[in-house]
Design brief:
The protein has one domain: Undecaprenyl pyrophosphate synthetase (3-Layer(aba) Sandwich). It contains 6 helices and 6 strands, in the order E-H-H-E-H-E-H-E-H-E-E-H. The chain binds 3-methylbut-3-enyl trihydrogen diphosphate (IPE) (2 copies) and magnesium ion. One 3-methylbut-3-enyl trihydrogen diphosphate (IPE) binds next to helix 1.
Length: 241
């Protein structure tokens, strides 16, 4: 399949593993939640920077299916932060023409939070500026397992012929079905792993692992990484002409 670099050399879809909030707080002698609050403030700036930087889709990893292993205090604090964040930012997203979507397994989240997520999606459904996808209780393996379950159900119901299943089929069952694959995945905080993020979708993504902790991430750092992306040669298994 012929592929070309994204328009103007920049990535159309950037996905970010926002890591390092806890270490940022600890290095200041503060509780981990202090870092999560600082991290949440960064999200606002990065979302606002997207139109100028030519980023049409931004996906951010907010909470993984593995993050329930943390202390009850941290998990409860994060859930409360998500609720407050959505309540506070909803109007702002509409004003900035940001369309919000959530990916991840929702039933495990509390009803109040789920209600706010539905509301944010409905309120911004008409927005056609930046597409912001927030991964909340998201795990790549969990997503593929849930997708497979729905696919199997369609086969059992006689709506899908197993002979027709190919690599175009599964993505239609993923949480990300209306979002293109990420071009660039950024992880902050110096860890070089993907921690179960967008497993299927990142098959051909470019990666940037940077040492900056998420609460220190700025639109300037973001712009530099996008510039670096523009210089890369994405071959998708082919050869450069
Ligand atoms: C990322 O920061 C935010 C979430 C996982 C919710 P961390 O909380 O993982 O911060 P570190 O990695 O412990 O510094
Ligand atoms: C990945 O960070 C998840 C999020 C950023 C939400 P973690 O801090 O949970 O990942 P590990 O534990 O270092 O792999
Ligand atoms: Mg971490």
């Amino acid at each position: 399949m012929a592929q070309k670099k994204a328009d103007m050399g920049g990535p159309r879809h950037v996905a970010i593993i926002m890591d390092g909030n806890g270490r940022w707080a600890q290095s200041r002698g503060r509780p981990r939640l202090f870092g999560h609050h600082a991290g949440a403030r960064r999200v606002r700036e990065i979302v606002s920077a997207c139109p100028d930087l030519g980023v049409k889709y931004l996906t951010i990893f907010a909470f993984s299916t593995e993050n329930w292993k943390r202390t009850q205090t941290e998990v409860a604090g994060l859930m409360s932060l998500f609720r407050r964040y959505i309540m506070k930012e909803m109007q702002e997203f509409v004003r900035e023409n940001v369309r919000v979507r959530f990916i991840g397994d929702r039933p495990r989240l509390d009803a109040k939070l789920r209600g706010l997520m539905d509301e944010a999606e409905a309120m911004t459904a008409h927005c056609d500026g930046t597409n912001l996808t927030i991964a909340l209780n998201y795990g790549g393996r969990d997503e593929v397992a849930r997708a497979t379950k729905r696919l199997a159900q369609d086969v059992a119901d006689g709506n899908l012929d197993p002979a027709d299943v190919d690599e175009e089929t599964l993505p239609k069952y993923l949480d990300t079905r209306v979002v293109p694959d990420p071009d660039l995945v950024i992880r902050t905080s110096g860890e070089a792993r993907i921690s179960n993020f967008l497993l299927w979708q990142s098959a051909y993504a470019e990666y940037e692992f940077i040492d900056t902790l998420w609460p220190d991430f700025t639109p300037e750092i973001f712009a530099d990484l996008l510039k670096g992306y523009g210089a890369r040669d994405r071959r998708f298994g082919g050869v450069t002409a």
